[in-house]
Amino acid sequence: MTTVAVTGATSDFGTAILPVLLADPTIDRVIGLGRCEPRVHHRKLDNVRADIRSPELERVFTGCDVVIHLAFVVEEQRDKSASSDVNLGGSRNTVECAHRAGVRHMVIASSASAYGATDLPVPVTEDEFPTSDPSRYYFFDKAEVEHFVEWWLRRHPGEMTIAMLRPTFVVGADVANDGIDMLTGMAIAFPDPSMSHYQFMTQHDMARAFHLAATSDLNGPFNIAPRDHTPVPTLARMQGQAVTAAPLRLLRLLADIGYRLRVVPFSSHWISSGEAALDPDLFCRSTGWEPSATSNDVAAAMILLRGRPLFGGAEVLPSSRVAEVALEPAIRRLRRWAETDSAIGDLIGDVDDALTRIRHITFDTPVGGVHAEVHTGVGGPTIVLGVAGRNHARYVTPLAARLARDGLTVVVVDTPGHGLSSGRRGTRRGHARAVDSVAAVQPDPSTVVVELTGPQRGRPSAPDGPDGLLDFRAGARLPWKGRGRSGTPTAPATNTRVAVGVADDLRSGEGQRRIAEAILGAVRRVGVPASRG
Fold first, then answer.
1. 80 or 332, which is more confident?
2. Which residues contact 474 (CB under 8 A, 6 or more apart)?
3. Least crowded by CB within 10 Å, which of 67, 119, 245, 413?
4. For residues 388, 394, 395 and 397, what is the CA-based torsion angle, rounded to 10 degrees?
């Protein structure tokens, strides 16, 4: 059995990695070190308040087999010497204390930023040397930590293995930073946007990579990235973002002025021409790890998690796997909703079972790319239900799960600009066209369109928690960039239509129960058979 210590356990990375470690039956104890309140709790997890610069780390690490070092100052501080003291001094102390405590293996979180961002091949392999640029503290500190580790390994051959993982931008429900805010803002500037690019990976892929590295004897640097990259113009088209070219010197000057005036949270230290595009092949061959999604796919999830709209047709919508990344905040709220609202609990039954039965489908329609969640029943007709307002399809899972148990196949449509769908938000005509377009292509000839009366204005009554898909904040966008009037014009609706309930009833468990009963009754009245599950 194995004991693993994790520095920076309360960080975004730590919050994503800890559950994977704790789920490993070969790891019997995890020690989480941090200076903030932990976000993860588990019977195998012991949380310890500690400063990575303290010699006390040796005592904490005694008896540990593996140390994962995540602690690092990322968000910019005005005192760069204080950042360096933690990043460089703390990292050196962590390595030395782990060695003295008898730790056999370390995993250190480095970064794609360690390479710098200029004069690099595409893609970059581990053969490239990480450069130190003192004018950018984060880039510099990451590279200097790697230089120290390389020096240390040469002086202590065979005494302790150290894997240094270089992840690219990480996207997920537990990750938030100024870089993501900048890349999903209303406008962005680069010295040469056509030559700038980024790579995006899910927090689950990152966590799997760290788990694999912790349970192996890898030594040296490894790139952790998707196998493709996202050009800045592509990222901008996906969200209607304004992109402009400006001299690097001017951008750095403006950033420094804004930072001094406390208008922006970062200085010229974060101004660059993009990020290195990494080749993950060495790590993939060494561990069997593979990225689960493309960079563009994860970029779409990043935009949605930040409450921004996607522009274009179905091609910009996230795949089924990455859709679950964008929906993870909603899933967490849905679980708590089922625990706190008995009506929701009765409707949905086993939450995990209901979620695993959901199938994602996307359509090109005249009003943009439309996403829907399908709950398959047996023996009954198909019904199509549109969701709008401050709501989306995942919060209708209790209603849909109940109807699926009664034999109905339920297609819950995120209408334009809602949930995972692209397009213009807030138009009744767009709502109707999206629902009719989805209904028209259903293979079941007895498909029924369910219409709810009144507007859907309120948020679901699920317990509070962040969900960018509800907290829609488009800001000023450029609708002519990739707006995408795709799809075949909607044919005149020929589906049976039934009007049931009030749209705002979707907000509560009792309301969803009433709508479920009304749908079953209406389907029987119009002569479409519904089995009783």
1. 332
2. 307, 308, 309, 425
3. 119
4. 120
Q: CB-based contacts of 174: which residues, under 8 Å, 6+ apart?
A: 12, 15, 16, 39, 203
Classified as helix, coil or strand, 223 is strand
Confidence at residue 481, expressed as pLDDT on a 0 to 100 scale? 40
pLDDT tens digits along 60-92 = 999 999 999 999 988 888 888 888 899 999 999
Between the CA of residue 217 and those of 100, 105, 208, 281, 287, what are the distances in Å? 18, 7, 16, 17, 10
- For residues 109 and 505, give the distance between their C-alpha atoms in angstroms, rounded to a whole number: 47
- For 218, 300, 364, 435, 467, the CA distances from 438, given in Å and listed in that order, are 50, 22, 9, 5, 25
What is d(CA 74, CA 87) in angstroms, rounded to the nearest whole number?
9
Long-range contacts of 34-37 (CB under 8 A, 24+ apart): 34/7, 34/8, 34/9, 34/10, 34/71, 35/10, 36/10, 37/10
The Cα 75–Cα 66 span in angstroms is: 27
Instruction: Find, among 244, 242, 441, 460, the residue nearest to 348 by Cα.
Output: 460
Cβ neighbours of residue 264 under 8 Å, at least 6 residues apart? 255, 258
Q: Hey, how many other C-beta atoms are within 10 angstroms of the C-beta on 267? A: 19
- Using an 8 Å Cβ cutoff, are 412 and 372 in contact? yes
CB burial readout 322-350, b (16+ within 10 A) else e:
bbbbbbbbbbbbbbebbeebebbbebbee
Mean pLDDT of 327-341: 95
Beta strand ranges found along 336-457 (DSSP E): 358-365, 368-375, 382-387, 409-414, 448-453
Nearest to 224 by CA among 118, 91, 112, 71: 112
First to last CA, the chain: 46
3-state percent breakdown (helix, strand, coil) of the chain, nearest 5: 40, 20, 40
Q: Classify the phi-psi angles of 501: left when phi > 0, otherwise alpha if psi is within -120 to 50, otherwise beta.
A: left
Q: Is the distance from CB of 113 to CB of 142 less than 8 angstroms?
A: yes
Cβ atoms of 117 and 199 within 8 Å: the answer is no
Q: Residue 31: which residues within 8 A CB-CB, separation 6 or more?
A: 3, 4, 5, 6, 45, 46, 48, 60, 64
What's the burial of 244, exposed, middle or buried (CB within 10 Å: 0-12/13-18/19+)? exposed
What does the alpha-carbon distance between residue 26 and residue 451 come to, in Å, rounded to a whole number? 52
CA distances from 267 to 96, 101, 189, 257, 260 (A): 33, 39, 14, 8, 8
Check whether the bond before 123 is cis (ω within 30° of 0). yes
Residues 288 and 39: their CA atoms lie apart, in Å, by: 30
Query: What is residue 275's three-state secondary structure?
Result: coil
